[in-house]
# Entry
Amino acid sequence: MEDRLRTGSGPGVSGAGGSGRGAPGAGAPHSRDLLRVAFGPSVVALVVIAAVVLVQLVAANSDLTGTLGAVASMWLACHQVPVTLAGQQLGVLPLVPPALLVWATARGTAQITPPNGSWFVLRWIVASAVGGPVLLTAVSLAVVHDAASVITVLQTPNALHAFGSVLTVHLVGAVAGVGSKAGRRELARLGLPDWLTDTVRPAIIGVLTLLALSCAVVAGSLVVHWSTMHELFGLTDSFIGQLSLTALSVLYLPNVVLGTAAVAVGSSASIGFATFSAFTVFGGDIPAVPILAAAPTPPLGPVWVALLIVGAAAGVALGQQCARKPLPVGAAFAKLAVAALLAAGSLAGLAYFGGGQLGNFGHVGVDQATFAPAAFFWFFVIGGLTVVLAGGLRPRPKPVVRPDTVAVEGEPLTEPIRLGVDPDPDTDTDPATERVATAEPGQRPDPEPEPEPASPPPVRPAPEVEDVEDLMFVDDDIEDDDIGHDDIESGPGQPPAGSAGPAGPR
# Structure
């Protein structure tokens, strides 16, 4: 029974072409699968964080006081929950941990999502993927609040912000995982256009292209500023210290790449008072993290203006993906607009989570007011030109010529052609054939009336049969003289005169 519910077979399961509103148990996964999705990624993150905290405390020859509070705080920080120490807020957190959590949640939900599962089952999978981390969030807040009474420099984060961040991270992963299996079917059930499901891939390709090219720009800038990065690594001589700086540089690499992408599309990024754009740079103090050596220094050379090529290349990549399936003009540009909007919205969300307050340095992040509109401009305008040039527009279908018209010297013949009719009027023609030939296309000729069946001939009554005794006669009753006389007068072959028949009156 459990296997039947899991595979979606048996009674109550929606068919292949159904609406997905089957029975509540249609295609339901096992309970252990739901538990794995609910707690698997979060528990793995807790184990890794606990190992890192213990290594750091042991390397620093510190006691284990407040270890649980530190583990809970770091687990919340992996979900972009700001950490407050001694009144200083660390709101700029690395994007690598939440990206890994989103990937793990999406992978887990996609594995247990049945292709033909009902809407009830899909909701349970998403609820499980979100419910487990929310429960762990409540436990982590309680642990941090208890540890704050012992470690005075540690403060309890905002509960609303904590629940919102954890819910957002795992909800994005759950929706992505479930949507990869049942998204197309659910959108078709809602009656949405077919091309709407094809906008996710162009958006992902456009975002990845922009981030990949921005990462190449960061690598090139690190090579140019190699001496500055070497000085930052030289601030500590210990192996643990240099390992920590390397780990910080790797974790904050997506944040730096995102700031470079903002500069590439025409927006700006800032680290406190230091502001960077493709046209100007304002200097200021920056944190001593080796990865930040890639930040440009004034005066700005003309080479940085070439970053605009990165935004154009991302628009071309998005447009090429949209042009893979040619559509009419209206549908093609609607598909492009949705893909560009989805890509720009994703970048805006990443920029929001990747920025925040950094202690005394101030706000660190990109300009939210200009980043998303600038990204949408490159994706839509350059992508639109790419769609037009790449043949992504389907021409209008040519009008179908009616079969009863023939083009003569570029002009259609409006009179119908009579098939099977002799043009000579003197020739005798069958009326039925003429009626069929002159019938207009799409109209069937009137059928010939069927002949009425002949009525059967009337049955005549059988003649009455006289009494058998009347047909009998005796030879003695016939007189010889009469016979001879009558025979002579009547002649051969005729009855005697006065006789009424073979048997006359007696």
Observations:
- The chain has two domains: 1-16+24-192, 193-425.
